[in-house]
Specification:
The structure is a single chain. By secondary structure, this protein is an alpha/beta fold. The chain folds into two domains: about 1-180, 3-Layer(aba) Sandwich (Rossmann fold), CATH 3.40.50; about 185-390, Rossmann fold (3-Layer(aba) Sandwich), CATH 3.40.50.10300. Helices cover about 35% and strands about 25% of the residues. The strands form five sheets. The chain has an eight-stranded mixed beta sheet with strand order 13-12-9-14-17-18-19-20, with helices on both faces. Helix 1 links the parallel strand 1 (about 5-10) and strand 2. The longest helix is centred in the middle third of the chain and has 13 residues, at about 170-180. The mean pLDDT is about 90.
């Protein structure tokens, strides 16, 4: 699916231009076709040789070519999205005013009327960013459905501190894919994804947990966000620089409470929730020297989080469970689907799924329909799961 997408990257003159090497590399690594157009002044900061090596395509910068004087039209027709990063104050203003005096701005003028997605990531001095004319031009572009990844606060190349730094490359990448794959039907629909292995306290510093990495849940969050859903991650692992909302939790009880306090259209329980918690936990750190040679912990069963939520679900809500097992995985999943009143359950095996970047799953629907998915990356599996359960 994603290797059919063509991304046209525009680079303007900015000290941050070199960072786009990593963006191009990230697009290519994930299977997208990439072509690059640069302004002539941008060549003071980036190399056509490096960009051609990374993109595996010619780099375009001249308005007029002996071989092709309509290359701006050809590039517009080829691209599925036009990403201009970084975009300078000068080029941003040209685009807002319809000025087409170089190849990049000519592409923009032709591209805007196609209604295909355009994403801009500005980078400039804080005073330029706060210039009222620049802000007015941004409003004009947004009114034409141009999307933005706003600059960040921080230390600027000129020595100032303020807003103007190019957004993190990972955020530009995620915003690109959201523009490529979002379905407007999903706008406003809320998806909660739980992920990671929960932790149950033994004392103030120790806990019991499991080996879940949260990779499957992270992929589900990414793809739900890209498809246009309003995503909330309720996570037992740390999430950094994610473009969707997140709540960090530790225990099964905290996860249950977080779900109860947030509405959803679809709940995907990808978390590995501890089945037991410590009955005799200590509020303070247990001192080893004060302990006997043997020390016994008592356990009690945790509440079944997904079953508890499913008991009170509304008719229009969907709940998706996960079943991880060593053997008889599908049979166990079918029992859980029925006993917990779920709409779907995703069955996967410990030896394949745990702490790897790949997975092989079986989706079982409430109707009894079974969908087998062959071994693939967790990213691709996540997209396929969402296409099934959010149909």
């Amino acid at each position: 699916m994603n290797n059919l997408k063509n991304i046209l990257v525009g680079i303007t003159s900015s000290i941050a231009s070199y960072k786009i090497y990593e963006l191009v590399r990230l697009y290519k690594k994930n299977g997208y076709n990439v072509k690059v157009v640069v302004t002539e002044n941008a060549l003071n900061f980036v190399s056509t040789l490096v960009l051609e090596t990374l993109s595996e395509n010619e780099v375009y910068y001249s308005q007029f070519s002996p071989r092709n004087n309509v290359q701006h039209i050809n590039l517009v027709e080829w691209a599925d999205i036009f990403v201009v990063a970084p975009i300078s104050a000068n080029t941003l203003s040209k685009c807002a005013q319809g000025i087409a005096d170089n190849l990049l701005s000519s592409i923009f003028c032709a591209y805007l009327s196609t209604k295909k997605p355009i994403l801009m990531a500005p980078a400039m001095n804080k005073n330029m960013w706060n210039n009222p004319f620049i802000q007015e031009n941004i409003k004009k572009l947004k009114n034409q459905n141009v999307d933005f990844v706003d600059p960040e606060d921080g230390f600027l190349a000129c020595g100032d501190v303020g807003c103007g730094r190019l957004a993190k490359i990972e955020l530009i990448f995620e915003k690109t894919l959201k523009n490529l794959f979002q379905n407007k039907i999903n706008n406003g629909k809320k998806v909660i994804v739980t992920l990671g292995g929960t932790k149950e306290s033994i004392d103030s510093v120790r806990c019991i947990s499991n080996f879940s990495s949260g990779k499957m849940g992270k992929s589900l969050c990414k793809w739900a966000y890209r498809m246009g859903f309003d995503v909330l991650a309720i996570s037992a692992v740390e999430l950094e620089n994610v473009p969707y909302k997140s709540i960090n939790v530790n225990s099964a009880d905290e996860m249950l409470e977080a779900i109860k306090n947030n509405d959803f259209d679809v709940l995907i329980m990808a978390a590995a929730v501890c089945d037991f918690k410590v009955k005799n936990k200590s509020e303070k750190k247990i001192i080893k020297e004060n302990m006997q040679h043997e020390f016994a912990l008592e356990f009690v069963k945790n509440q079944d989080v997904v079953k508890k939520i499913a008991q009170n679900k509304r008719q229009n809500q969907k709940i998706v469970g996960f079943c991880l097992a060593d053997e008889d995985c599908v049979a166990q999943a079918k029992n859980k689907l029925k006993n917990k009143n779920l709409d779907y359950i995703v069955a996967n095996e410990v030896k394949i799924a745990l702490n790897t970047d790949e997975n092989k799953v079986t989706i079982i629907e409430k109707s009894g329909k079974i969908i087998n998915m062959e071994l693939d990356t967790k990213d691709n599996i996540a997209r396929k799961i969402l296409e099934v359960v959010c149909d």
